[in-house]
Amino acid sequence: MAVFFNDHFVANENALLHVSDLSMQRGYAIFDFCRTKNWRPLFLNDHLDRFYASAAAMHLATRYNKEELTAIIYELIERTLLDEAGIRILLTGGYSVDGYQPASPNLIITCNAVKTASLADFENGITAMTYEHQRELPSVKTINYMMAVWLQPLLKEKKVNDVLYHHKEIITEFPRSNVFIVTKDQRLLTPSRHMLRGITRKQVLSLAAKQMDVEERDIRTEELLQAAEVFLTSTTKKIMPVAAIDGNIIGDGKPGVITRKLYNEFLQLEQQGGQ
Ligand code: PLP
């Protein structure tokens, strides 16, 4: 398995980051993650735009422009010999002399087998609990998923699959996915702020805008629990119905009509190469 490390391809076992890197010392790094289908990265342009925006927000210099990075990613896909994979583009704070000051960033791009949600996963949906939390720098895709990882034992104890963050009763996002609700009068709502702008979210918004009223705005937890349908979106989960939240069944607990329609349209988009 090949890995791109700063300026060359190395074998997986030689892709070693020194312990002085700020990602290890202080958790300082950003990344983006996209998926390939039929050897092609889906929505790569949007993922790279977000990667550059995250890097700039964290004052991390990038050594390649979009064209160069695209060529590197295509070469990595070819070398990896996987027609469907997950590509992770990681940019760290670099080898810091005092473990605090940012240094020259390290760029690590990996291409590995990826597990995506299946049709059976879609039919089952997921269950979730709400939790009061606001991510630091929510518009940036940093490597900080500390709260999400810390909450894993609680999710097991509560027997739910995922957690939906809210701040002062305004819902924001799941740790790794965006949230949407379909109201009883068939409007599609999704939070407009304090969350990461997902690439799947963007695609779903444009698919939905062709057929229904769409609003990006604050959504209160009461509104969430009264929704006809709730679903989440992400690169690996695609569109996933949320069957129950905090023990309240949403709709009849099955994938809703709008969720299913958007899901089928999204799969078609993916099949067409998702540009
Ligand atoms: N929100 C957060 C915090 C995420 O980390 C992610 C993806 O990992 C998403 C939302 C969904 O974004 P995307 O659709 O680009 O995968």
Estimate nothing, just give the exact number of structural domains.
Answer: 2
Low-confidence stretches: none
User: At the third CATH level, what is the topology name of the largest domain?
Assistant: D-amino Acid Aminotransferase, Chain A, domain 2
What's the helix-strand series?
A: EEHEEHHEEHEHHEEEEHEHEEEH
Question: What is the CA-CA span between the terminal residues?
Answer: 26 Å
CATH first level of the largest domain: which class? Alpha Beta
Strand content: 25-35%
Summarize the structure.
This protein has 275 residues and is an alpha+beta fold. Helix content is 30%, strand content 27%.
Describe this structure in words.
The chain contains nine helices and 15 strands. The protein folds into two domains: 2-112, D-amino Acid Aminotransferase, Chain A, domain 1, CATH 3.30.470.10; 119-271, D-amino Acid Aminotransferase, subunit A, domain 2 (D-amino Acid Aminotransferase, Chain A, domain 2), CATH 3.20.10.10. It is 30% helix and 27% strand. Strand 1 and strand 2 (8-11) form a beta hairpin. It is α+β, with helices and mostly antiparallel strands and 275 residues long. The radius of gyration is 19 Å and the shape is globular. The strands form two sheets. Strands 7, 8, 9, 10, 11, 12, 13, 14 and 15 form a nine-stranded mixed β-sheet that branches. A six-stranded antiparallel β-sheet has the order 2-1-6-5-3-4. Pyridoxal-5'-phosphate binds next to helix 7 and strand 13. The site of pyridoxal-5'-phosphate has 15 residues, from helix 7 and strand 13.
